[in-house]
From TrEMBL:
It is a single-pass membrane protein. It is found in: Membrane. Keywords: Glycoprotein, Heme, Iron, Membrane, Metal-binding, Monooxygenase, Oxidoreductase, Transmembrane, Transmembrane helix. Heme binds at residue 181. Its cofactor is heme. Pfam families: p450. One of its GO terms (molecular function) is iron ion binding. GO terms for cellular component: membrane. Pathway: Secondary metabolite biosynthesis. SUPFAM superfamilies: Cytochrome P450. This is Cytochrome P450.
Length: 280
């Protein structure tokens, strides 16, 4: 039998305490991989749309870069990323402004550690205060402002006088240490693709109150609490940027159908009816 990182023989407590076998552990791992990449991505994109709605000037700069590099004859692709530094900066700044996991995932130290004169006993629960780090006014200029330009000046987005020699990555949104997100590179590509396509295709503006005719403001601090956070429901107006953009979206949608049809077995009658109606 080939060595497997998901063999229960490597985790005897799993077998003894939870009565799990290899095939069960493998199924749980598959579920965790989907869950770990779906709710985090969804939370990030909700924050992205909220922030783009609140900061139209960021959208404008994103449009200028997207239109210059890609135009309106095709959708963005992952190969475009190196030519889109401002779009990369928007992704980094969204992570910084509203990290999906503001306290990351708890760690524990196997032995006592001393940090800056403070003794951390063995077995202590240690949280990485991602939110606090990303909103430290000593590190970031005006940290409560959504400003992707900070990452255009240096890769860490920090003030000019901040020592970044100990920064091993441009962001800490994916955790740190040995418990860092194992899918961070895949996730980052997914977020870049989503961000590129959303900004290429749509404008995000304030919804208008039907009674007063005034824009409905969005609350940047109205968030669900938990290990993972996401904005509470908010109103905004999403508009396709042009008829040409809409035509390309429709074309891409039609061409993607055969790819998704392979995974549509055992659907409920309700889901089948929805798919049929959507694809007419």
């Amino acid at each position: 039998m080939r060595f497997s990182i998901i063999s229960v023989s490597r985790f005897p407590d799993v077998t003894e305490n939870f009565k799990l076998h290899n095939f069960q552990l493998q199924r749980y791992l598959g579920g965790v991989m989907i869950e770990g990449g779906s709710d985090t991505t969804s939370s990030f994109l909700q924050s992205l749309i909220l922030l783009l709605t609140a900061y139209p000037e960021v959208q404008r700069k994103g449009y200028e870069e997207i239109d210059r590099v890609i135009g309106d004859q095709r959708v963005p692709a992952i190969d475009d990323v190196p030519d889109l530094p401002y779009i990369q900066a928007i992704v980094k700044e969204t992570h910084r402004m509203r990290p999906v996991a503001p306290l990351a995932i708890p760690h524990a130290n196997r032995e006592a550690e001393t940090y800056k004169g403070h003794v951390i006993p063995e077995g202590s629960t240690i949280f990485v205060n991602t939110w606090g780090i990303y909103h430290d006014p000593d590190v970031y200029e005006d940290p409560e402002t959504f400003n992707p330009d900070r990452y255009m000046h240096n890769e860490h987005g920090t003030k000019a006088n901040v020592d970044t020699s100990n920064f091993n990555r441009a962001d800490i949104a994916f955790g740190s240490g040995r418990r860092i997100c194992p899918g961070m590179h895949l996730a980052n590509n997914s977020l870049l693709l989503n961000t590129m396509n959303l900004i290429w295709a749509f404008t995000f503006g304030h919804a208008v109150d039907s009674r007063t005719g005034q824009p409905i403001p969005v609350d940047l601090f109205s968030y669900h609490k938990g290990i993972l956070t996401a904005p509470k429901a908010f109103q905004c107006k999403i508009t396709c940027r042009s008829l040409r953009h809409a035509q390309i979206i429709e074309k891409e949608f039609r061409e993607a159908i055969p790819t998704f049809e392979r995974f549509e077995g055992n659907l409920s009658a309700e889901d089948e009816a929805w798919l049929k109606a959507t694809r007419q």
